[in-house]
């Protein structure tokens, strides 16, 4: 902030030794590359004192000074190849299902999209719909946690008040807040009317697998599951809440819905792998079913949709292979060109098969 407020002169200083007498680390943008003991000097006098600059025939043009100084100072700290810099980003890397989906999503760019969104983390503002989804998830999490603590389900008014609080914490624009508050209240009222009797005090909510040591053929996995339901006979169901327009079935004629359904199913299979290979549940419980709980009702008739998927061993083993391959690609910074694949579900499946068959 001080740099942008300087009116005439800006002095950047360093020191050679610390308070304990030990040599201090060099500020690379202040020293010469040839001789570390020689401080860099750059005059921007011509920018702040035009009269003096006009008298000096050798004075550089302002844009020349800025360009030279910026490039000189800005680039010095980045030593080595681009790959060396990226390697630090995959050190101790753990892969959640969103990263896997992004890497495989040919419609959005696949590996390049993953690189930008998940590795380099290009800055993005949170969307209103994303904030809304967060508030819904936090409300349902509190609903079950309160049930586990109090031994009874909270009344609807309290739940809606919780939702309003969580939505306000998202700091949305006033017009967005009003729109999503109304939308969320309507959705939660109908969802709780239909689903409240399906919740159990044994339900596990928002379980984070970050420190569960989930490893698969060298691939370290991570993730958080909205709800894990104990259905008896040493079996779990994994549930994921979805906001937005619900899918009614896994087979759709619409290309966008096809892609969504395919990625949703992959997500549920990934969750099965997380649970069955975790420190907490591994060897104790199996997951044979995944459930998508669509919180918002259908616009046509107001119905709440629940979409179930039986997770077969065949699909699980295939995804395990894919996870291992993609993870190795990521940590080795191998981002294949996917321009030859069509930007639809057909292209995504072809990309997956080529990965599995080591054609990339």
Description:
The protein is of the alpha+beta class and about 350 residues long. Among the domains are: about 1-80, no CATH class; about 125-200, no CATH class. The protein has 13 helices and seven strands. It has helices at about 1-5, 45-50, 50-55, 60-75, 80-85, 95-105, 110-120, 130-150, 155-170, 175-195, 255-275, 315-330, 345-355, and strands spanning about 205-210, 215, 220, 225-230, 235-240, 285-295, 305-310. The strands form two sheets. The protein has a five-stranded mixed β-sheet, with helices on both faces. A two-stranded antiparallel sheet has the order 2-3. Strand 2 (about 215) and strand 3 form a beta hairpin. The model is unreliable at about 40-55 and about 65-80 (pLDDT under 50).
């Amino acid at each position: 902030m001080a740099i942008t407020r300087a009116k005439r002169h800006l002095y950047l200083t360093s020191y050679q030794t610390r308070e304990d007498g030990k040599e201090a680390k060099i500020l690379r943008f202040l020293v010469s590359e040839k001789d570390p003991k020689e401080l860099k000097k750059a005059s921007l006098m011509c920018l702040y004192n035009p009269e003096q600059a006009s008298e000096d025939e050798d004075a550089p043009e302002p844009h020349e000074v800025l360009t030279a100084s910026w490039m000189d100072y800005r680039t010095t700290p980045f030593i080595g190849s681009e790959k060396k810099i990226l390697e630090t980003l995959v050190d101790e890397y753990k892969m959640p299902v969103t990263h896997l989906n992004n890497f495989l999503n040919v419609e959005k760019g696949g590996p390049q999209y993953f690189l930008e969104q998940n590795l380099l983390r290009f800055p993005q503002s949170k969307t209103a719909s994303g904030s809304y989804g967060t508030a819904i998830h936090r409300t349902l999490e509190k609903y079950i946690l309160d049930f586990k603590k109090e031994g009874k389900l909270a009344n609807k008014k309290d739940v809606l008040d919780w939702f309003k609080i969580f939505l306000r914490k998202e700091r949305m624009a006033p017009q967005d807040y009003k729109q999503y508050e109304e939308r969320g209240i309507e959705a939660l009222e109908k969802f709780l009317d239909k689903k409240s009797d399906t919740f159990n005090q044994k339900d596990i909510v928002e379980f984070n697998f970050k420190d569960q040591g989930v490893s698969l053929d060298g691939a370290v996995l991570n993730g958080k599951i909205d709800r894990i339901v104990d259905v008896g006979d040493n079996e779990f169901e994994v549930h994921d809440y979805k906001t937005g327009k619900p899918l009614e079935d896994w087979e759709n004629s619409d290309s966008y819905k096809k892609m969504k359904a395919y990625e949703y199913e992959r997500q549920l299979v990934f969750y099965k792998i997380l649970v069955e290979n975790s420190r907490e549940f591994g060897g104790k419980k199996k997951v044979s079913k995944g459930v998508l709980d669509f919180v918002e009702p259908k616009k046509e008739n107001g119905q709440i949709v629940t979409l179930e998927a039986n997770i077969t061993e065949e699909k699980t083993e295939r995804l395990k292979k894919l996870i291992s391959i993609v993870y190795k690609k990521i940590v080795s910074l191998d981002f294949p060109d996917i321009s030859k694949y069509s930007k639809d579900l057909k292209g995504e499946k072809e990309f997956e098969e080529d990965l599995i068959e080591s054609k990339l």
